[in-house]
Amino acid sequence: MGIDIAHYHGWEGKLRSPWWGSLAIVRVAMLQVFRRKSYWVVIGLGGLIFILYWSLIYIMTQFEIGAREQDSIAKLFGFSPVPTAEMDNGYVVFMQRESIAVMILLAFSGSLLVGTDFRMGSLTFYLSRRIDRVQYIVGKLLAVSTVVALMTILPALVLYIEYGMFTSSTAYWRQNWQLPIAVLGYGAVLCAVLSIWLVTLAAYLQRMAPIAITWSSLFVMCGQMSTQLREASDNRNWDLLDPWRCIRLVGKLCFGTFQYPGEYTRSLWALLILTTTCALALAALMRRVRAIEVVT
Amino acid sequence: MQLVDIHDVSRSYGPIKALKHVTLSLEPGTIGLVGNNGAGKSTLLKILLGLLEPDTGGGTILGFDICRAARDLRGRIGYMPEAAAMVPILKGVEYVTLSGDLYGMPHRDAKRRAHEVLNYVGLGELRYRRLEEYSAGNVQRLKLAAALVHDPQLLLLDEPTNGLDPAGRHSMLRLIDDLIAETGKSLILCTHLLGDIERLCEQVVVIDRGTVIRSGTMADLRQRIANRYELAWQEPEQGPGYREALAAAGVQFTSEFDEPQATVVVPDHWSSRRFFELARDVGAIITRLKPEEEDLARVFFRVTDGSATTSTVDPPTQDVAHGN
Prior knowledge:
The structure holds 2 protein chains of 2 kinds.
Chain A lengths: L18 H17 L3 H24 L4 H11 L12 H30 L2 H6 L5 H19 L1 H14 L4 H5 L3 H27 L2 H26 L9 H13 L7 H28 L6
Chain B lengths: L3 E10 L2 E11 L3 E6 L5 H9 L6 E6 L2 E2 L4 H7 E4 L11 H12 L3 H14 L15 H13 L5 E5 L7 H18 L2 E5 L3 H7 L2 E6 L2 E7 H4 L2 E11 L7 H7 L3 E2 L7 E5 L7 H10 L2 E9 L2 H8 L21
Parallel strand pairs in B: 3-8, 3-9, 6-7, 7-8
Antiparallel strand pairs in B: 1-2, 1-4, 4-5, 9-10, 11-13, 11-14, 12-13
Helix pairs in contact in B: 3-4, 3-5, 4-5
């Protein structure tokens, strides 16, 4: 029997909780990001960083090279699959490097994911359905977080598993069982901070150029300023001026590895700074979304 | 069950009173909502959609309390916003599916329904096109499909023919008309194009300065215009003309064209029987005789006391005849 498409047919299902709408926003955001061909250049850059570290682990575990050479390679790339006292945690380093690609991707996609909702009236579409403003904001934050997670947490966990499998020993799993939890913790900090900042920025600036300029200024210029001031005053507290280093310091709280004296205290300060700025950004975002009239 | 049953609803924005003690009781059916810019239409729509709680008063829409069941209410209403409200890069079917997802439909159902309603609104062939490639007319159809996806009881359409050319407007109105006729859904149509309301709606609500000043059926609202008739006739090939006979009896014609049809203004105390007597005298046959009725534009300007200065509603082209 054919399908009757000429006449209207009703639907008698049951509507689910509007929180499912937040997940629909995430799904659509993924379609939007991965359909833009130009974004694949940046995603490819992230892929290259991952392949580099993947190959590094492969060489370190599959080729018979001495401990000194292994140390040299690890120092060259700043990556050690097993946390050492001398070096930064390898997974923090990897996720930090991967975050460069994420930062570029977010700078360009902020306008598409959030800005257009305000500029082209899509927000009216979202809010006139059954979801409310909180569910919309949660959906957008989750969307950006998913992009961040796919490019940082997921590959970091793959590297962890790769190293464990190539070492052919259960000792690695037993001794480093807390590493994936730490990766997830650091990833959560990255996701939360980057998504809240980006969604708020994009909600106010809306167009790609201002978002990209402000976003890169926030990370590059603050970073440069922080470095200059730290070197001039020989005071590592200036690190707290750099959002990137703040995130990294909070990440170290998750991994529990600290390189310099006083780093633990600085990490707590970084946590306070990030929490405050995120709370302020969320309040500003809520205010911005509330200002939108669904019926004009 | 009443479609809309609200009592003494007021809403203020700071010192501005957007709605003042609105009481409205509407039967299910097709309803036109008319008002000037700033009349309180948008505030009323927000309350109907459950997006805004009134300061005072209350009531029900589709049996749902407007203060306590706003979310359930939105699940029963299909809203088509005036704004383009497109989500870039998505394809038509994905956009309608997203609408279903946001209403809370299970994703699989939303996807299946998206295909169904897109076929129904005539976009079956275009459903895999990106939204940026849709014409203005198709965007309106797409927005209608997105409002229909969860099979709502009430459709709330905000300027559905906005920006369409005459053919597109006609086609959109026919689609809505067919949909209402086939499904029996209720419709609230909010537009500045009074012709759209005349064509689709059985009931009209006129709102002005935050108050509902008229509410009723189209027939109730329209008043016969005293002394004006629409007249058409056939004349014998020879002999005195009917037009001349009418003119001699004091009838005025609103146009100078010498055609066997006209809108005429008759003297006071004129009986319509006189038309037939004069026609018999000259051997003419009257083919149409109808007292002229007000169109909605006239009604609107009459009931708003001509205050539609800021409105985009077109003013009536002729003065209202005697007695109005």
